[in-house]
Amino acid sequence: MYNPNNAKETAMLPKDSILDGVIIDIKDGKVSDFVLNLDKWKGDHQQSAINVAVEVDSNGNKVTIEQLFTYKDNNGVTEFPANSNLGKFKKKYGELPSAAKQVKIQTNNDGFGKIKID
User: Fold this and answer.
1) b/e per residue, 32-52, with b = 16+ CB within 10 A?
2) Quick one: pLDDT at residue 59?
């Protein structure tokens, strides 16, 4: 239960680490479906995108990280450049994101994680 009088800050994930994760969900849509603050988004807000949810076990705590990958839909064919995040994912893991795929999560010095694609 939420209690503002008995609360403390904790890191969700260890800082500067590489952790194992598994893709638990992929949602398909447009960038605008997933990005809350579109003012900071540099690309097309209506571009096709998938939002990939990855579950990480950090010291017995399950943490879910979401990451957005854009692509172009060409009459039902998913197209992406080799140097895009989706292209980098395919190069690193040998295939595109799919449910139950094992991936690596890299955290920064604040403990925020993203899928390791380089």
Assistant:
1) eeebeeeeeeeeeeeebbbbb
2) 80
* pTM higher than 0.85: yes
Residue type, 1: M
Q: Give the residue carrying structure tokens 């003012």.
A: 39
Range in 37-46, 56-65, 82-91, 104-113 the model is least confident about:
37-46
Q: Could you give the CA distance from residue 18 to residue 28 in angstroms, rounded to a whole number? A: 27
DSSP per residue, 91-104: HHHSS---TT-EEE
Strand-pairing partners, residue 19, are: 105
Residue 54, classed as helix, strand or coil, is strand
Tell me, what DSSP letter sits at residue 59?
Answer: T
Question: Taking residues 89-98, what's their average pLDDT?
Answer: 96
